[in-house]
């Protein structure tokens, strides 16, 4: 087996190759220093993959990383790989999981259709809507990013876990099982047309160290609202833990409401503190 990483996911590709005891193949991403002046992407595989089972690791965000992935998949096939597994740590466009308006693309499926031209199967972490995966034109499996967060949360003295909204309940429940910490979710109650009360449903947070757990932090707006409410209820410490940390727009300012921010290596940022490599390695071994 050979592993190679697109430019969005080189550290994770390296960690995965180590976990699997497989060779990591280098890729060049520039033909000339500085790349093409028009911004087009370039890839060149620096190793042999003929007759091999090849695992490509590439997060498909932002958009140029999608082009790189398609180029890599095509180049690997042309070079004679026997089997190609696409590991997409963060699956960009996953949130457009249906046609909200007539005329739209179901973008999550569009990505899979193009990948299926070269890849035999797809693995991705904590996908927005796992029910969509069986509709993809290639076998696709979700790997959970929550165990990686749980490994970190166990060691930092959190007293409880909190889902910032109903959608995050599945992540918090899983983290609670793995850490043994109690969990709660925020409930929103409309008091009048101008006032919304947001509070933990059951557990008191006064004096507690609370870890908010979510799949994605994008602008940090959801986390900031939750953290501000927890502080007003007397929480001693607020930790934000997410699988995919995009940190766009006003995220840096919004995250000032938290004492600590934790993200996995599905998207590399200054908040990346844990790796999902062990979970991907286990999923790849289970492919058979
Ligand atoms: C929503 O479904 C997701 O679980 C996140 O809560 C959301 O994407 C976070 O976005 P933001 O950081 O912009 O509030």
> SSE order, as H and E?
EHEEEEHEHEEHEHEEEHEHEEH
Strand order of the largest sheet: 11-10-9-12-13-14-15
Largest sheet: 7 strands, mixed
What percent of residues adopt helix (DSSP H or I)?
25-40%
Average per-residue pLDDT, rounded, comes to 94
Rg, nearest Å: 20 Å
Number of strands: 15
Q: In what range is the share of β-strand residues?
A: 25-35%
Work out the helix count.
Answer: 8
Q: What ligands are attached or bound here?
A: ribose-5-phosphate
Low-pLDDT stretches = none
* Overall geometry: elongated
Taking the alpha carbons of the first and last residues, their distance comes to: 12 Å
What does this structure look like?
The chain is an alpha/beta fold and 288 residues long. It is 27% helix and 26% strand. The mean pLDDT is 94. The protein has eight helices and 15 strands. Strands 11-10-9-12-13-14-15 form a seven-stranded mixed β-sheet. Bound molecules: ribose-5-phosphate. Ribose-5-phosphate (R5P) binds next to β12 and α6.
